[in-house]
Amino acid sequence: MKTTTLKLVTIVTERILEDRLLRKVQELGAKGYTLTQATGKGSRGVRASEWEGPDTRIQSLVSKEVADAIVEYIAENLFEHYAVIVYVQDAEVVRGEKYI
Amino acid sequence: MKTTTLKLVTIVTERILEDRLLRKVQELGAKGYTLTQATGKGSRGVRASEWEGPDTRIQSLVSKEVADAIVEYIAENLFEHYAVIVYVQDAEVVRGEKYI
Amino acid sequence: MKTTTLKLVTIVTERILEDRLLRKVQELGAKGYTLTQATGKGSRGVRASEWEGPDTRIQSLVSKEVADAIVEYIAENLFEHYAVIVYVQDAEVVRGEKYI
Amino acid sequence: MEHIITLASNLLSPIILMFVLGVIASLVRSDLKLPEPLYNGLAIYLLLAIGLKGGVELNQTPISEFIGPALITLFLGILTPIIAYNVLRRLGKFDRINASAIAAHYGSVSAVTFIVAIAFGTMTGRMSEGFMPALVAILEVPAIVVGLMIAFTREKRAGSWQEALHEVLAGRSILLLAGGLIIGWIAGPTEFEPIAPFFEAGFKGALGLFLLEMGVITARRLEGLKEVGGFLIGFGILVPIFHGLLAVWLGGLVGLSIAGSAVLGAMVSSASYIAAPAAVRIALPEANPTFYLTASLGITFPFNITLGIPLYYAFAEWIM
Amino acid sequence: MEHIITLASNLLSPIILMFVLGVIASLVRSDLKLPEPLYNGLAIYLLLAIGLKGGVELNQTPISEFIGPALITLFLGILTPIIAYNVLRRLGKFDRINASAIAAHYGSVSAVTFIVAIAFGTMTGRMSEGFMPALVAILEVPAIVVGLMIAFTREKRAGSWQEALHEVLAGRSILLLAGGLIIGWIAGPTEFEPIAPFFEAGFKGALGLFLLEMGVITARRLEGLKEVGGFLIGFGILVPIFHGLLAVWLGGLVGLSIAGSAVLGAMVSSASYIAAPAAVRIALPEANPTFYLTASLGITFPFNITLGIPLYYAFAEWIM
Amino acid sequence: MEHIITLASNLLSPIILMFVLGVIASLVRSDLKLPEPLYNGLAIYLLLAIGLKGGVELNQTPISEFIGPALITLFLGILTPIIAYNVLRRLGKFDRINASAIAAHYGSVSAVTFIVAIAFGTMTGRMSEGFMPALVAILEVPAIVVGLMIAFTREKRAGSWQEALHEVLAGRSILLLAGGLIIGWIAGPTEFEPIAPFFEAGFKGALGLFLLEMGVITARRLEGLKEVGGFLIGFGILVPIFHGLLAVWLGGLVGLSIAGSAVLGAMVSSASYIAAPAAVRIALPEANPTFYLTASLGITFPFNITLGIPLYYAFAEWIM
Ligand SMILES: Nc1ncnc2c1ncn2[C@@H]1O[C@H](COP(=O)(O)O)[C@@H](O)[C@H]1O
Ligand SMILES: Nc1ncnc2c1ncn2[C@@H]1O[C@H](COP(=O)(O)O)[C@@H](O)[C@H]1O
Ligand SMILES: Nc1ncnc2c1ncn2[C@@H]1O[C@H](COP(=O)(O)O)[C@@H](O)[C@H]1O
Ligand code: NA
Ligand code: NA
Ligand code: NA
């Protein structure tokens, strides 16, 4: 079975940014995404799921270029004022052309 | 601490397939799995958690052979008609013999 | 955009250990973590979310040294008596100094 | 004139307006949405409550009264998917898989439509027979079996027939309705009393909250309207009307009251969107969910709870 | 003396004690915590119930009675954020962004404080006007707009003004309150009756359960007290008192009853912690959430539901 | 004869039948399952309601009536884990760790069994003393302490004794029961009235829904039956009967009514499956959860709610 190596971008951030980020991620070239709920702790302290609801964890399987673009967008626009983390990993898929 | 490199297979798919897939994954050699709930979007459109419940995200740590078998099974049997994504990553574990 | 490669440690374990493990993980040097809920199956059988609540899935982005220390702690203290799995993967981040 | 009043009283009843509020919330992209576990819990509560109440009243009903309606319901559960299938194949030019998938939905029943029909009756002072929930349980399964049989008879299919059947029979709608019926029947009115405040007094309000979320879900399905085309939209209104009027008429023939016939009409007319989609997804994965979900949830459900139900009541009154 | 009794009767009422239980649970690091979907569902239920009830009673109110209170509420919604902003800037030396962020919160309204104020009234036998929920809807939005306008007038900001406004207007508080009002108003008392047991009888108990969780959440905010400093703590008590007494007085002037004026006082005095934080987070991401959340949720909310509300009632009685 | 009727009336009561429905749903692998947050929320509701009601009635009870039952409950909380431990060690040949782990469960109490026992009483017209919930709070903790002490006295253990104790004392069962008791006691009947519809009228129905899910959970535990062996199955029935009858007898001696003694019997006989498993898992991780969970949840719980409770009532009637 022929496989391709793509990039899996994971973003954990405030629920309030979810809609905006999903729009942006797709604009930058992502063909799909998977969402889960998360809580956590980082430099901005504990983010427990309270009135604001839990944080959102976005994962998207994309090409290297799109991954870079997403990371760059977040670094430039969100790092300063929002609770957000983003990291990129390798992932092998079949029918890789579907995601790029 | 001696570590082994195994494969982490991640599957995101419709809840309705959960039971069937878990049975199959174990038949193919997986010794365990971890489930989380997810929503998302892909080529078949938005999968929000509605009456059908959220999608299911299955992760299993397995040997290379088992990983290949799982991916192949999904590619052949589920890709065509179901909302499903599967990808494989490396992961280091201790006491790796437990999972193969 | 300059990126660093860090280690992503994933732990899936009983809810009852959550507080203790989070304290420990931070003691060992983790600067943050992300939590999700999970159910699953392993050598100790099915862990469905019942009265005890679902299992907890802890992910932390740390340096190689901290990752090793976490894995070692778990292997020595928790493997024997608790339902627990831990694995380590690579992940690329920007502003990596924030997490080490 | 009187019928227009009844119609208005349905359209302006708080529970229907809550449905509308849900639709609006979805259209303005609000974050208003019942959390999924709660929506799920409300569904369990409503089905169990309906079952229990049905059981308690069945306990007081001579079995002879029940036989006729039960048989006619079974008959309609077999007839209506066949009607729907033929309309879809012959007039709509649907392929066999999609036609039978949709037919399974229109033969089966929407428990919420049923509940709204009951509630509409009691709000306008017309009580239907106590055993109606038992008819829902009877109506739910056969149509799905018939629908899948049509698809499975000629070729071997990708999906699993047994798993699909298990999904329906062990599905929570059947278990809660049938289980509630039996529990209520065993308990009878006296034993039911202590739990009545929970299951009876709160019922209509809980239904309103549930319909709020149904509104949100329905509105999301409206996107599918462009895709499915005009035929399916017409189908989703006209075939239910035909099924409904037929059922009202037959209900009257076997001795159901006006309200009972009307509720039977609403049941038969309604399309399943819980049990059937799950079974069809398993048994007929090739069928396109956009068709059957948009039709049953986006067209027939809102039509029935707003205009359909008052229509069936009016027709029942007119023929009796 | 009589006022001390009323105060005690508030402090010892079961729903306030449930709030205290929640605080204690959090302080002893208990696992006692309402599951998030349930907390969410209760919020939906409470807002909808308040809206519905308000609508039903508005249905019976001549519109002329409503105009005065409506206008004065709108006026207070514009005035109070300006007062709060100036106190924070001039006395507190806060920067413009944080001052306007906090001001938006103190101009807007906490629906739970409002509900507790109503409940306190009915428990002590003093009914406020039925249209009070409509005033909450009027009060919620303008202050947030004013607060954000102050921040946006001079410089271009990082956040999005339109998205923030959408967040408030299409937010579930407004939709449920306004939607409930309209539904209740259309339905009137007769149509409301079947759903009343669910939305009315269970109301106060559900509020108690909700306050239990509010206690847990509030206690978590107490950690922020050290960070925010003495000024903000004083601000979080004194400015609400000032806003509250002002509103009671103006409420009396436009003809509200004693209870109505007191409830208006509680509303105006309260600080938003649902709609405002979401809007501010989007429009003013540079503002520090610790300031506005600790102040509104950690200081003003507990102050108001324990001491503030009896104070506004006492003042309303005293001036009339 | 009369006792057989009471037994049947318990077995056929709707709430027990809902438990059975849950068991069946699980056995036929249905998707019927209360969403976890809802199950959790129901547990909170039931514990708080029981506490509140107990507190309100304690408010009306002279303290002298309460002393005797309180002391005897404390005594039983210390005695029963010692009995259980010795039976498991001597007759069952269990190792020290597992024996003390199981003993901690059988000394402590199952709040649901208690609630079903109360409900069974009121349904058959026999009211127990209002302060019974206070006894549950007294019974919950000591046995767990005794159980863990037995395990910790000789060797140093892997687990943490302090964390385990914190888990129990700050656990939500104790907080809700004790907190509810205090709130109810402060409030008294008049202040309780506004929240009574929520906490009282809905109680039995909510218990039924909760038992539905308990049925699902219990059925899953039945798998463990093969593993645990015949001795533990016998233990899970006979030791509870012995504990229960002992408690009924002592309850009668210290002046409890028939219903009160029976409820005390059910409490003492029951095995904890919320507080104790959590504490034991932390303090004695080497103990095998299959043993203590299968015994307490798979054997003793279903035995007690079906046969045990009518037995304790019958015995209480017989000896008085
Ligand atoms: N080192 C880390 N490992 C894993 N997740 C993290 C880490 N740091 C932050 N996070 C996640 O990112 C969110 C925002 O982090 P921050 O912006 O640093 O407060 C946190 O709530 C966590 O969910
Ligand atoms: N590029 C992607 N990245 C991450 N998740 C995806 C992606 N594409 C699809 N998915 C997930 O897989 C599910 C099914 O995808 P599909 O079959 O393409 O509709 C979606 O609902 C997503 O949860
Ligand atoms: N091979 C595996 N792949 C993924 N997750 C696993 C695997 N084995 C165990 N787990 C997870 O770790 C938990 C505890 O495993 P165990 O201690 O083996 O019972 C399980 O409930 C699963 O969530
Ligand atoms: Na039908
Ligand atoms: Na205000
Ligand atoms: Na016991």
Quick rundown:
The complex is a heterohexamer, with three copies of chain A (100 residues) and three copies of chain D (320 residues). With 100 residues, chain A is an alpha+beta fold. In chain A, 24% of the residues lie in helices and 43% in strands.
List keywords for this structure.
heterohexamer; A: 100 residues; alpha+beta; Alpha-Beta Plaits; 2 helices; 24% helix; elongated; D: mainly alpha; 15 helices; 0% strand; binds adenosine monophosphate; binds sodium ion
* CATH fold assignment of chain A: Alpha-Beta Plaits
Averaged pLDDT of chain A: 92
Q: In order across it, which strands form the biggest sheet of chain A?
A: 3-2-4-1-5
Structural shape of chain D: globular
Proportion of residues in extended strands of chain D = under 5%
The termini of chain A sit apart by: 19 Å
List all distinct small molecules, including ions and cofactors, that are bound in this structure.
adenosine monophosphate, sodium ion
Question: Regarding CATH, which class of chain A?
Answer: Alpha Beta
SSE string of chain A? EHEEEHE
Largest sheet of chain D: none
State the share of residues found in helices of chain D, binned by percent.
over 70%
> Which sequence of SSEs, written as H and E, runs from N to C of chain D?
HHHHHHHHHHHHHHH
Quickly give the CATH architecture of chain A. Answer: 2-Layer Sandwich
How many strand units of chain A?
5
**Describe the biggest sheet of chain A?**
5 strands, antiparallel
**H/I helix tally of chain A:** 2
Q: Helicity level of chain A, as a percent range?
A: 10-25%
Structure classification of chain D: mainly alpha
Principal-axes geometry of chain A comes out as elongated
- From the 3D structure, determine the CATH topology of chain D: Na+/H+ antiporter like fold
